[in-house]
């Protein structure tokens, strides 16, 4: 498999020197040398653009084609790049540049060996390797293409819809923007570059461009705004081409975050696009574009979308074209006088809203929506757009992560009628996304869709628990998640300018067929687990779906109430996520926003991207910079390095890490809790979320909670980040700083021990979470470690074998027990069937992991979010301990297989697609014997640990037997 950066399909990237990766031939133990060749941007052979296939082509020339790992029908899905498999063929006469043989063992994230790439440059590259097996064949060609890399590449203008009165947030319509671009007779390669302040969709000659959703994505817009690149070659035709853009508030202007604040990055939406044909700019947004009414009457990511699919109002066409208001606008090429001026009409057969799956297509295989989504606006309609001369072109960036897509479709598992005129649809799974309605042609009024995670006692959708209710929030805040549509003869409706977290949908106003559309970042699946206990398998699936529901362009806390990129959530779950999915680009994108949000004092915001209302100068500004949340600046890059071997992310984030640790040092030295003596290495001041959501804990008065002493938590994280910084500095060759952070970590550890370990060796506070953290972080002297683990087990037994951990330490609870001789207790907690426990969640109908341990009480009453992935980090225990796959060298260049059976589980298996290839561990207990099978990918080695033996094995499949 060949890859560019962390992308399967490197199209529109922002790297001039992208890194290349490839996998070795099967059974190869080590690469001795490699050779890379590349062709120029004119080498694309369009004959290679056939049906989408997987990208698993090894460098020995063998191709492993197979079904898409997400279970989708992927034929024809890609319209964002030239070929989703990343393959093209060098044509005769292309310029070929060759590295020659390079004696090097590296084949993961190898630096670009050629001249830096230019803007909009398309290249094809191939690699072959030399191993102990000999020289391989050349790999299949892999393409990559840069986006527009410089502000000066843009000649188009930012434009805004003509808005007179702007309604309140949540009640604002989407606008259609329309322009005409003239295309030459022959085009071999056409690219559309687009972005927006808001959410946008593009339609070219009546066909939707691309299959991405919620573009341009969520970033810290004042610093970083992503530009999407689309291959529109097949959609262009000679002469005039109509571009229609649908533009709504999205994250930019809509309600976001804990406070549901609006207009956080600006009070007006805007759009920017530029069309290139064979390397020449042929058009873009400018003053000739017009604003058209949209069928979307309101659109908000939280509140929902209201659409009227009836005839649209029209405006009288302006008598003359408005003059550009800036020099930049005049640089956009205009159609020549010889070109026809008639506006092309959409094809009559274009669907009225969204394309339907072809006959026989599985409901688990979503098709990309195509066609004009509503009745097309009349050619004469429109008001002049505004040219936004004050918006610049700095901060425009290429993509580093896969886009958000419609990744799966779910058919209802049940439909009930709790009251007259109400239909409740159960999808059987809590998801993030929306629904598609069909069979609407006979509906004469408005249909209302209310989305929720639970049902009330009457069997109707219950959304009361999703309405935020905390004393510091503006009241009232709605639960949102309501879509409305007036079909007016249209047969199909699918909202794409909102998104919801839900399992159930209440349908009012008419009968309709409902299909659930799962929407999230299109991440490549890399991890699997199954075992003999179906309850554990269900828990693993719930954790998986919780992450899927919270991976909508950024890692969120929940897909319902806040939808915010809380830093503490991601630092807890990111190692587990990195086993299940390739989150390298996804996390890199988010970390760049974290750094952009960071204060000049080093404080890390609670969430990223951080709305200004919740940042430094907002009403909750003092709550930023909490221990365990701000430490994501250090912990998340380290977890990426461990999972993918990416040193560059450590180097890139190094200034952010240093700034955070500098802030913590100042905070610890600059004050002290009034009840204890000052110690410059004890962090006991400021606001901290602490362990957060301990079972049975009621927060109540936030002022009282804010005043609580949480020095045990804060100082532990101070040590954790300082110790990691020492290791990171060593990786980066910063020897002096490594020594400094090593000394700092030792001083913080000593301060923690002096304050929280008594003279008799007892640890204070005597709580499960404090002991878990002390053991997991290495805070204890060696002679007290086992006693602390034993005390942890005692506390658990004293609680009736129940956990008492919250947000920060639950992920480490079972591993800490297993590491210190209490695997039996770990498995009893895992399988505990009384509250609080994971199994109670499942017994009460959970298909995702809850925010609170008692998210649904015994009477069936829900509270707060029912889709929070942090407690789903228990899946990491199943991967690393039950199945036994544990990372060794970064990127799994070497790893350990050490299964820890327990809990009556008689068999388990797990697989992980590491950067080097598939790792598998599968075991079975039978007849007093443990049978273990291990698969080791090329270029790696595994240490296999059994109760009485340790063996190191190389690539291939290995089997072991052991008395058990």
From TrEMBL:
Bacterial alpha-L-rhamnosidase N-terminal domain residues: 186-309
Keywords noted in UniProt: Hydrolase
EC assignment: 3.2.1.40
Domain Alpha-L-rhamnosidase C-terminal positions: 884-959
InterPro entries hit by this protein: 6-hairpin_glycosidase_sf (IPR008928), 6hp_glycosidase-like_sf (IPR012341), Alpha_rhamnosid (IPR016007), Bac_rhamnosid6H (IPR035396), Bac_rhamnosid_C (IPR035398), Bac_rhamnosid_N (IPR013737), Galactose-bd-like_sf (IPR008979), Ig-like_fold (IPR013783)
Domain Alpha-L-rhamnosidase concanavalin-like: 421-515
SUPFAM superfamilies to which the protein is assigned, alphabetical: Galactose-binding domain-like (SSF49785), Six-hairpin glycosidases (SSF48208)
Composition-biased stretches (Low complexity): 344-359
Ranges annotated as biased composition (Basic and acidic residues): 44-59
The Alpha-L-rhamnosidase six-hairpin glycosidase domain, residue ranges: 524-881
Catalytic reactions of this protein: Hydrolysis of terminal non-reducing alpha-L-rhamnose residues in alpha-L-rhamnosides
Protein origin, superkingdom: Bacteria
Single GO biological process annotation from the record: carbohydrate metabolic process
Region (Disordered): 40-97, 305-382
UniProt GO MF annotations: alpha-L-rhamnosidase activity
Bias kind Polar residues: ranges: 317-327
EC category name: hydrolase
Protein name per Swiss-Prot or TrEMBL: alpha-L-rhamnosidase
Source organism (scientific name): Actinoplanes derwentensis
């Amino acid at each position: 498999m060949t890859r560019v950066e962390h992308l399967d399909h490197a199209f529109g990237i922002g790297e001039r020197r992208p890194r290349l990766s490839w996998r070795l031939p099967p059974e190869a133990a080590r690469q001795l040398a490699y050779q890379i060749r590349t062709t120029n941007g004119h080498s694309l052979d369009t004959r290679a653009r056939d049906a989408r296939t997987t990208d698993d082509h090894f460098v020995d020339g063998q191709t492993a084609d197979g079904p898409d790992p997400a279970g989708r029908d992927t034929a024809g899905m890609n319209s964002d790049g030239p070929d989703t498999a990343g393959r093209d063929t060098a044509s005769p006469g292309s310029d070929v540049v060759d590295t020659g043989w390079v004696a090097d063992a590296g084949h993961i994230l190898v630096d670009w060996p050629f001249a830096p790439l230019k803007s909009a440059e398309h290249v094809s590259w191939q690699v072959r390797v030399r191993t102990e097996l000999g020289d391989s064949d050349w790999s299949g060609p892999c393409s990559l293409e840069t986006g527009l890399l410089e502000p000066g590449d843009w000649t188009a203008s930012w434009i805004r819809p003509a808005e007179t009165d702007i309604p309140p947030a949540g009640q604002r319509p989407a606008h259609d923007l329309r322009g005409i671009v003239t295309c030459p007779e022959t085009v071999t390669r056409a690219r559309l570059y687009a972005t927006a302040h808001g959410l946008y969709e593009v339609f070219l000659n009546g066909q939707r461009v691309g299959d991405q959703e919620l573009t341009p994505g969520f970033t810290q817009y004042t610093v970083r705004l992503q530009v999407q690149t689309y291959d529109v070659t097949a959609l262009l035709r000679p002469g005039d081409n109509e571009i229609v853009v649908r533009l709504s508030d999205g994250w930019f202007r809509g309600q976001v975050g804990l406070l549901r604040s609006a207009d956080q990055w600006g009070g007006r939406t805007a759009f920017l696009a530029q069309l290139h044909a064979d390397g020449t700019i042929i058009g873009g947004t400018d003053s000739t574009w017009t604003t058209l009414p949209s069928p979307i009457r309101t659109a908000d990511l939280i509140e929902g979308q209201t659409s009227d699919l009836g005839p649209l109002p029209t405006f009288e066409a302006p008598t003359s074209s408005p003059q550009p208001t800036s020099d930049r606008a005049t640089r956009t090429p205009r159609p020549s006088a010889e070109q026809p001026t008639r506006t092309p009409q959409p094809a009559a057969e274009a669907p009225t809203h969204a394309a339907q799956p072809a006959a026989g297509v599985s409901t688990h295989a979503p098709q990309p929506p195509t066609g004009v989504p509503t009745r097309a606006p009349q050619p004469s309609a429109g008001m002049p757009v505004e040219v936004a001369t004050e918006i610049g072109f700095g901060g425009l960036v290429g993509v580093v992560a896969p886009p958000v897509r419609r990744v799966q479709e779910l058919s209802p598992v049940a439909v009930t009628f709790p009251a007259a005129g109400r239909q409740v649809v159960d999808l059987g799974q809590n998801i993030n996304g929306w629904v598609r309605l069909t069979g609407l042609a006979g509906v004469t009024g408005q249909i209302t869709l209310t989305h929720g995670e639970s049902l009330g006692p009457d069997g109707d959708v219950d959304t009361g628990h999703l309405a935020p209710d905390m004393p510091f929030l503006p009241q009232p805040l709605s639960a949102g998640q309501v879509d409305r549509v007036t079909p007016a003869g249209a047969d199909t409706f699918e909202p794409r300018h909102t998104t919801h977290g839900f399992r159930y949908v209440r349908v009012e106003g008419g009968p309709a067929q409902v299909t659930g559309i799962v929407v999230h970042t299109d991440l490549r699946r890399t991890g699997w687990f199954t075992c003999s206990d179906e309850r554990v398998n269900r828990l693993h699936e719930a954790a998986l779906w919780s992450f899927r529901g919270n991976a909508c362009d950024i890692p969120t806390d929940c897909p319902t109430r806040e939808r915010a990129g809380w830093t503490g959530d991601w630092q807890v779950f990111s190692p587990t996520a990195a086993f299940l999915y390739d989150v390298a680009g996804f996390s890199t994108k988010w970390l760049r926003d974290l750094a952009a949000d960071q204060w000049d004092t080093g404080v890390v915001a609670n969430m990223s991207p951080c709305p200004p209302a919740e940042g430094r100068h907002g009403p909750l500004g003092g709550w930023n910079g909490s221990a365990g949340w701000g430490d994501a600046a250090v912990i998340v890059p380290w977890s990426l390095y461990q999972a993918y071997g990416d040193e560059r992310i450590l180097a890139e984030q190094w200034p952010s890490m240093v700034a955070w640790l500098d802030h913590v040092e100042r905070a610890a030295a600059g004050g002290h809790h009034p009840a204890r003596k000052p110690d410059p290495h004890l962090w006991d001041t400021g606001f901290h979320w602490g362990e957060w959501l301990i079972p049975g804990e009621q927060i109540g008065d936030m002022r009282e909670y804010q005043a609580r002493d949480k020095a045990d938590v804060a100082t532990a994280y101070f040590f954790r980040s300082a110790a990691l910084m020492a290791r990171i500095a060593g990786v980066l060759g910063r020897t002096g700083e490594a020594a400094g952070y090593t000394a700092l970590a030792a001083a913080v550890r000593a301060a923690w021990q002096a304050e929280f370990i008594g003279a008799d060796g007892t640890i204070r506070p005597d709580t499960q979470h404090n002991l878990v953290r002390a053991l997991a972080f290495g805070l204890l002297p060696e002679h007290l470690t086992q006693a602390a683990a034993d005390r942890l087990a005692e506390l658990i037994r004293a609680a009736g074998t129940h956990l008492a951990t919250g947000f920060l330490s639950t992920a480490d609870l079972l591993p800490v027990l297993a590491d210190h001789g209490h695997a039996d207790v770990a498995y009893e907690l895992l399988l505990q069937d009384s509250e609080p426990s994971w199994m109670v969640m499942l017994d009460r109908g959970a298909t995702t992991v809850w925010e609170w341990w008692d998210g649904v009480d015994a009477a069936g009453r829900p509270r707060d979010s029912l889709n929070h992935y942090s407690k789903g980090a228990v899946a990491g225990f199943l991967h690393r301990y039950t199945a036994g796959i544990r990372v060794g060298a970064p990127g799994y260049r070497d790893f350990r297989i050490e299964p820890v059976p327990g809990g009556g589980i008689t068999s388990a298996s797990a697989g992980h697609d590491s950067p080097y290839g598939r790792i598998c561990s599968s075991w079975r207990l039978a007849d007093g014997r443990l049978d273990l099978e291990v698969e080791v990918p090329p270029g790696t080695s595994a240490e296999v640990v059994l109760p009485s033996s340790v063996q190191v094995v190389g690539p291939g499949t290995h089997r072991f037997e052991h008395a058990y």
